[in-house]
Write a structure and sequence with these properties.
The chain is mainly alpha-helical and 159 residues long. The protein has 2 domains: 73 residues, Arc Repressor Mutant, subunit A (Orthogonal Bundle); 65 residues, no CATH class. The chain is built from 7 helices and 3 strands. It has a 3-stranded antiparallel β-sheet. The protein is elongated.
């Protein structure tokens, strides 16, 4: 069964917030149709019934769905407010921004290690080391590996 989203925009937003396509389908169906039993929810979300139990357990573990068990009755699943997902996405954005700052510092450290060599001169220096004469006493395998590494570095620097 292929899931047909209630709204392509909301489904994509759920996926961007970190849910799988199937999780997004089930959660979106819960939001749209309200609390449901797993079998009915699987039908509404367009996912296999057996898979819906696994997905619901994952959503419960993530704190996005609440499972209500009544004695001698089938469990009913309730959606948690989507603000919970927004909070999670905000945290991911903050972590990504922190990673970007750390990466920028790493770039600065790398540039400092290279010194203040103009890019064009840096390329010519690397090219000199890539020549056979500069790598004289190395074996053919070592030379080949080093040349590949230097070519990769040049390609990376040109990006």
């Amino acid at each position: 069964m292929r899931y047909k989203p209630i709204s392509e925009v909301s489904r994509q937003a759920l996926v961007w917030a970190g849910l799988s396509d199937t999780q997004a389908a089930v959660y979106e169906a819960l939001i749209h149709y309200g609390p449901q039993k797993a079998t009915k929810l699987a039908f509404l979300a367009g996912v296999p019934r057996t898979l819906s139990y696994k997905v619901l357990d994952e959503l419960v573990a993530q704190g996005l769905v609440i499972k209500k068990d009544e004695s001698r009755a089938v469990s009913v699943f309730f959606p948690v407010h989507p603000l919970k997902l927004k909070e999670r996405l905000d945290k991911q954005i903050t972590e990504a921004q922190d990673a970007k700052v750390a990466l920028h510092k790493l770039i600065l450290d790398f540039n400092a290690m290279l010194g203040t060599v103009p890019e064009q001169e840096l390329y010519s220096r690397v090219a000199v080391y890539a020549g056979k004469a500069a790598l004289g006493p190395l074996s053919a395998t070592e030379r080949s590996t080093l040349q590949k590494d230097l070519q990769n570095l040049l390609a990376h620097l040109q990006k």
